[in-house]
Structures are given as C-alpha cells and as structure tokens.
Amino acid sequence: MTQTSSGPGSGPGFGPDLVEVFGPSQQDGGPELIQLLTPEGERVHHPEFDMDFSEEELRGFYRDMVLTRRIDTEATALQRHGELGIWAQLLGQEAAQIGAGRALRPQDYVFPTYREHGVAYCKGVDPLSLLGLFRGVDQGSWNPDDNNFGLYTIVIGAQCLHATGYAMGMQRDGVVGTGDPDRDAAVIAHFGDGASSQGDVNEAFIFAASYNAPVVFFCQNNQWAISEPIERQTRIPLYQRALGFGFPGVRVDGNDVLASYAVTKAALQRARDGQGPTLVEAYTYRMGAHTTTDDPTRYRLSDDVEHWKLKDPIARLEVYLRRNGLVDDDFISGVQEEAKQLGAHLREGCKALPDPQPLSMFDHVYAEMTDELAAQRDGFAEYLDSFEGARS
Amino acid sequence: MTKITLAKGLNMGLRKAMEDDPKVLIMGEDVGKLGGVFRITDGLQKDFGEDRVIDSPLAESGIVGTAVGMALRGYRPVVEIQFDGFVYPAYDQIVCQVAKMHFRSMGKSRMPMVIRIPFGGGIGAVEHHSESPEAQFAHTPGLKVVACSNPVDGYWMIQQAIASDDPVIFLEPKRQYHADKAELDESATPEPLWASRVVRQGSDCTVLAYGPTVKTAMQAAEAAAGDGVSIEVIDLRTLSPLDMAPVYDSVRRTGRAVVTHEAHVNLGMGAEVASRITEECFYSLEAPVLRVGGFDTPYPPSRIEEDFLPDLDRLLDAVDRTMSF
C-alpha cells in the first residue's frame, strides 16, 4: 500500500519525499477530512464549515438517506429477479449524495454519472424513471430541463466538460455573481475516483479554472473503480489536485451527511458568487459491487468492508437523532413505511414499463429527420408488416 | 456584388450568423485576436466580444465537451478544430456525446452545434495537417456532415449549418481558402444545405466530388472535353445525409460514374456512393463505378503529397477505364 520507498519525490533539489498517502495515517481520510458527525454519531465542530441544522433538516436528511437506500436495494432486487439488465449500486454513498443534493437550489444544474440515484431523488426525478436505462427500455427518460438534472453519463468523466460548458453558458446569461439568491446559479459535476484519471475531467478542471466557471466538481471517492483501488488512480489525495489547476479543493467525510451538505453548500455559494470552481472530494466507500454484474470478492478483503460498515452514514445519524431525542420510534417506523411504499412503486412501476416499439429507434436520431433515414425506417416497417401479414 | 475567397465567404457567413442570433458563439484555438490560423474568424472577436468569440485552452475534447454544455444551456456553439488531424482528441465527445444527446434524451435535448474542420491536403504541411476524416463522422448516426467547395457555398452553407438544430461536421477545403475568388450575391436565395448539385453537365460519364476535389473534377471535365468526352460533374456538398437523387438521374443518363475524394479509398465515401449507385442504377450502368482517392497509406510527407492526392490525370485515367470497359 505504501508508496514512499520508490516515490518520485525524493532526491536532491526535488524536495521531500511524498507523504505516505495510502498508509495508516490516511486510512480514515487523514487529518484534513472535514467532519461534523463522527461514525459514532457524535456531533463535532469544524472551524470553517460548521453550521447549525434545524431538527427538521436533520430528520429530513435521515428520511432522504433511508429512501435513497431503498431505491438502491429495490433496484438491486429487481435486477436479481431479471427485471433489470444491470444496476449500479450506491450502497454506502447515501450521505455524500444527499448532502450534495440537498445543498442545491432549484436553479442549480446537475451533471451526474450513472450512480447519482440519491441526487436524482433530491432534484425531484421520479426514481422509477431511473430504471428505464437499466431495464433497457430507454436511455434516460426524464427531461433534463424539468428538474435541472442531466442524463446519466456512462462514458466516465465526459459530463464534467458538459457541466463546465453549461456553467459558461450561465455566465453569459448573467446569472452568476449578481447577489440575488433566487437568480444566481451554479452547476455541480459528479464523478468518481476512477474518472479522475480521465482526460476529460482534467480538461474540465482547466477550462473551469481558465474561465472561472461556476461549477463544483464533486468527486465521490468510493475507493474502487470496479476492481482497481484508488492507489492505481492517484499518488496524492485527490482533493489536492485542485491546487495544481488553480482552484481550491477539500476532502469531506462522504459518509457524514452534515459535512457533505455544509461543504457542498459553501462550494456552490462560491460558484454562484462568481468565485469560480471548487473540487470537493467526498471520501466514502463503495459498500456494494461496482454493478450487479461485478464480484468484489475477487479483488478486495471483507475486512475492509467490515471496517467501513462501522461508518455507515444512516446508522450514525440515527444514533445522533435518537441520543438527542430528535426522533422517536414512530418517526422511524413512519420513514420505514414510506420506504416500503417507494419500494412497491418501483417494483410495480418497473414491471409495467413498456418495451419500446422497434420503429421507435428511428425517432430522435435527428431533430430534422433525413430522407435517407426515413426511407430506411419505412423499408423496415414494410418488412415487419410482411410478417404480420403472414401470420394473419 | 463582391468577389470573395472561400475564407472571406466563411468569415462573412459567420458574421451574419452572429448578427442574426445572439446565441451563436464561436470557440476554438486562436480564433480571437489572431482570427484563427487561417483567419476565418478574423475581426469577429473585436466586433462581438470575448464572451462570444472565445479563445480556448489547447484541448480539443475540452472545446467540444464544453460546447455540448453550452448547447444544453441554449447556445449555438460553432467550434473550430484547428486542423483535421487534431480532431481525434475530441472524437469521443463528438461520437458518444454530440451525436447521441438528442437520441438519448428522446428528443428533449438538442445539439445545435457546428464543428468546423479545415480538411484535405495540398498545402505542403507537416503530418496531421492534411487529413480527410469525413467518413469517420459520416459513419456516425446523429451527426450530419457537409463539405463546401467554393466561396459562395462557404457563405451560405455555414449559415445554414449554424441554423440547423442537429450537430453538423462542417468540412472546409483548406487549400481553397485563399485560392479562387467568386462573385457573391448576398440577396440571392441559397439552395438547401442537404442537396447535391450538378456543377457541369455532360453525357458520357458522371464524376462525383466534394470539397477540394470539385475543382479537380472540373479541370478534368474541361480537359476531357478537348478529347471529345463529355463529363458531368456533381458536387455532393452533403455527405451525411447523402443527396443521391441527382446522382441517380445523372448516372441513368451517362451509364458511368467515378467518385473522387482525397480520403483513403478503403471504406471511404466513394464506397458508399458506389454501392448506392449499384443498388439503384444497376441496369443503367455500362461499367463498374470507380473510385479515385488517396491511397490506403498514412498521409505521406508533403514532398510526395501530389502523388497521393487524386489529380486530374488519375481522374481522367479512371474515366478512360470506364469508357473503355
């Protein structure tokens, strides 16, 4: 795990050796980790990012995380039952996503990967519409502009450039740095530790820095890119990369919904105020497989997973809420009941999603249909009709 | 009426598009103060400002990827790829994102983007500066691909491409930029963008060309006329979609066709055009459809590029072969 012995930093004139980035001192995120709620459910304070939360907000975070986890477990079960072709699980990343999602204002715009089910939920996208892509009936059925939530992006990192360009559009629309809280807007680009190696992510950093674009780069470092550990992607903590691009970066405890919320809120406000991009590294862990087709037992130790189980984002908030008398059993069972109903909505809705008609593949290839594609479609329609004729 | 070069026609067309629609933006490397390495955007930043004519960092995927975001925000970005051989870093964004966004969103998002690419050889350049990547984009559903061949088309076609709600790969024959001049009548009504055009009538053989080879085809037709061979020349103009109806009409009359382009012949536009002619005009053909293009080698060093490029003699040789078949 350690990288120091053969690290490139040593030698006369090149400064000190690299710090032991992946050694024991960094295993829990290191001293720079911003945290407001410990894994034991203890409220701690931070000199820069501390904030007060109302009881309603705290209960809301709990409810959001429980419902998000239900979306995930329900979709995973639907895949096991053959109703979905595949599902990208978010188990363990609920706090990072709800914290980031709830920090958004309605006018802010989200560019997600394919795992931002919790952020989609925060933006008001019906979780059922997330399933279409994974069932194979569509490639994203929601209108991005209805909820300011872009389509899922499978080529990792590509959306970071779209986010940056969208933010540059906001600058040109005069909705940045006006001081009007209902007008000023920002973009959040989601990506993971794996995508941080992509050229597009690094180019997005450069463009955003160069134009001071109002975009927050929100990296959920869940430690794993399918089977490749974070050490394969980086030799320094990811958040420190921001400095090299000329904007601030911070590492937040991605299993702490309060800190994830506080840090993202501050970063978004910086962007809306016209102060440019921020990199937020949400330090978390992918508790499940990469997707339902993956088998993590082939490449990681169950000890690691057990270690992270103790940092569960929902459990720690529940401990805090109960200990401080902010929730009772009625509230908890009410949320459980709501989750059950959401599960039923997904189960029934998923099975009822209609298969698209074959000819629909010709729709929306172009805004203005071409004659040659229309001819191809018509030829295929005739071919299909010839079978129907034979049957009747 | 003014006499203009292709570079001037494109510049005037871009200016007109920017005047007509405040959502039109230009982005690329050196497009601002310098006016682009070929001066196609000359003077536009001075008149429209740095917010609308944007000098970008030197990263093609970044240029196209951020343009996707701008298009999603309601802008109509026109991006300049400095040279054909530099488009490949943006290939993923063009093929996976630009081309598919409208489809993936089931029509809810639009990608009204123009990607301008100076293409083709003949300028004595170093490697990666003389390529013809059109088939790679014409092979991608969701993109439209056009190639202009003359100053007047440059003026109109760039405006029509910008007005299109679909993404357009806009190919400009760079060796023609500052070559021939033509009269532009700005009050004329342009032909549709998605139309090929008969540029010289003839009765013995149809030669199909686009971009830089249109001029070669016209020269070949002139030379052949001296030998008593009447060549009809069609400027394809649009490569995806192809406008084949005028081609079929022509080939049914002449019975012979030769397709020419600078791109490699293997799996090039000529293969598609020849295949379609064979499907539609089989009983009218007096000879197989021939292709004259760049060889299936990497673009060679410039001292021998004239041997690589299809020229008048190779084109006439192909015409002779179809005539004597």
Secondary-structure blueprint:
The complex is a heterodimer of chains A (392) and B (325).
Chain A: H1 55-80, H2 94-102, E1 109-111, H3 117-122, H4 127-135, H5 144-147, H6 158-172, E2 187-192, H7 199-211, E3 215-221, E4 224-225, E5 228-229, H8 241-245, E6 249-253, H9 257-272, E7 278-283, H10 302-309, H11 313-323, H12 329-352, H13 371-391
Parallel strand pairs in A: 1-2, 2-3, 3-7, 6-7
Antiparallel strand pairs in A: 4-5
Helix pairs in contact in A: 1-2, 1-11, 1-12, 2-9, 4-12, 6-7
Chain B: E1 2-4, H1 6-20, E2 24-28, H2 44-48, E3 53-55, H3 60-72, E4 76-80, H4 91-98, H5 101-104, E5 114-119, H6 134-138, E6 144-147, H7 151-163, E7 168-173, E8 182-184, E9 197-200, E10 205-209, H8 213-226, E11 231-235, E12 238-240, H9 245-254, E13 257-264, H10 269-281, E14 290-294, H11 305-308, H12 312-323
Parallel strand pairs in B: 2-3, 2-4, 4-5, 5-7, 6-7, 10-11, 10-13, 13-14
Antiparallel strand pairs in B: 1-8, 6-12, 9-11
Molecular structure report:
The complex is a heterodimer of chains A (392) and B (325). With 392 residues, chain A is α/β, with parallel strands linked by helices. Chain A folds into 2 domains: 329 residues, Thiamin diphosphate (ThDP)-binding fold, Pyr/PP domains (Rossmann fold, 3-Layer(aba) Sandwich); 34 residues. Chain A contains 13 helices and 7 strands. In chain A, helix 7 links the parallel strand 2 and strand 3. Chain A is globular. The N terminus of chain A is likely disordered. Chain B has 2 domains: 183 residues, Rossmann fold; 127 residues, Rossmann fold, CATH 3.40.50.920. Chain B contains 12 helices and 14 strands. In chain B, the strands form 3 sheets. A 7-stranded mixed β-sheet of chain B has the order 3-2-4-5-7-6-12, with helices on both faces. A 5-stranded mixed β-sheet of chain B has the order 9-11-10-13-14, sandwiched between helices. A two-stranded antiparallel sheet of chain B has the order 1-8. The longest helix of chain B is centred in the first third of the chain and has 15 residues. In chain B, 57% of the residues are buried. The chains are: A alpha/beta (392), B alpha/beta (325). At the A-B interface, helix 6, helix 7 and helix 13 of A face helix 3, helix 4 and helix 5 of B.
